[in-house]
Amino acid sequence: MVRMTLADVVLDGLARAGTSRIFCAAGEGLDPPLLRSARRHGLGVVPARDLAAACVMASVTGDLNRSPGAALTRLGPGLATAGLARARLDGSPMILLTDGRPDEPPASRRSRPADARLFLGAVVKASIAVGPGSAADAIVRACRLALGEPPGPVHLDLGADAAEEPAVPVATALRPDGLPPPDRGALDRAARILAAATRPLLVAGGQCRTGEVAGWLRALAEALPAPVLVTPKAKGVLPDPHPLHLGLFLGKAIGAAPLARADLVVAIGLDPSELADGDWLGSGAAPPVLRLARSPDDRYRPLAEVVGEIGLAIEELAPRLQGRDRADWDVAELDRAKRAIGAERPMPTGGLGAARVVQIARELAPPGTIVSVDAGEVRGVVTATWPALAPGEYLVSNDARTPGFAVPAAIAARLAHPDRCVLGFAGEAGLPLAVADLETAARLGLSLAVIVLRGEGAPGVPVRDLPARPESVSIFTADGEAGLGGALRRALDARGPTLVEARVARYPQSR
Q1: Does residue 172 form part of some domain?
Q2: Which of 24, 130, 195, 494 is in Cβ range 3.0-4.6 Å of 72 for a Cys bridge?
Q3: Are residues 81 and 131 in the same domain?
Q4: Single pTM value for the model
Q5: How many domains does the chain contain in total?
Q6: Which residues are CB-neighbours of 137 under 8 A, at least 6 positions away?
Q7: With 70 as the cut, is the pLDDT of residue 96 above it?
Q8: Can you say how many angstroms the Cα of residue 493 is from the centroid of all Cα atoms in its chain?
């Protein structure tokens, strides 16, 4: 029988749960036995800019693969939690492994697991101390917690000098059991409410991002028929060009016209963290809400709620809705509402607009391109302008303010889908981080393009003149449409990472 160490048990468990690689901060002195064990179990080790970027890559990988993403670091007083907080906000399954600090005195080592759980408790679902006798139970619990409802980050602390201790291998399933079927009484009540509505409005959230759920969502929308608003994380669950796709849902102020006409909002897979003012749902300020979701949430005040697998819930609703009258929506009215929502976004009056940059990029990028977008102003304009056609084509964080998401997310997408074109969008605030992350892409030999939108006359030196610009990254600058088209073509055709600096007229502050 092959001798298993604590590191082997943990990393073999990750591999069996579907994890493909582990992300870490470049240059960080990590426990060699952990790294050797990762490679023995087929897990690639990918160095990132820092731990925050590693956590973005791990959480996006978890989202794309529907398995726990993994990051590895040393546990110390300076451990950054921003990446974990973002993963928790996004509902992304990931596991952060810490291997201890071998240079700490023994007294602090003894107290570290309890301190870690206290320190990380606000941003992870659980912080678990791992010992040789508990390694199998710990990795099973961590994987099930990370993937369980609602998904999120989990911390495993292996402690210092423990990786090579003998341990008992995992002998049970690492993924959580499937959700129970939706309650029949809840389905009956939901069907009665939906059948009585004359103008239902569907709002789709991030839990709809699987192909199966997206297919059922489309079938429901077309059968009613009912218009659909999507949150940024749900872009692509109904193709943007679809006649019933009304646009983005960012809160009650967006899509005010259809909301005023609707007599029922059907919230499908919508998480409150996707909304800045989500507490309006079910209040007197909006139509009543029928909620379909994978897990209950007491922040909602719905008229009725169906909890369980969303695709199965819609499938079970279908026969209960046979014979109902078709919804009383006027197609021309919906088209006017869709145009009105677009008109609510003011565009610059002169020069190359940010939205036009996004449109040109869409025209030149091949079908199936995966797009990632950073926080800040760029998030609003790209989300509103880029048409997504399928789930998983558009990567965005629920953290709308903290930059540093776009390029690590693009790297994770390129590693997960090496045959797909990947394009990232960043703004001025995220430029230094984008440049640093592109160095990671260059080190990995990845081809991906990043467009940085910079306002005309904005302070700061051009990208070409940045002192930390990596020589292995190709830089293109564009001021007008013709120059932008040429720069984008070269960037998309290039081998290795490229950055296109697009000088644009100032665009309005957006969420």
Answers
A1: no
A2: 24
A3: yes
A4: 0.91
A5: 3
A6: none
A7: yes
A8: 27
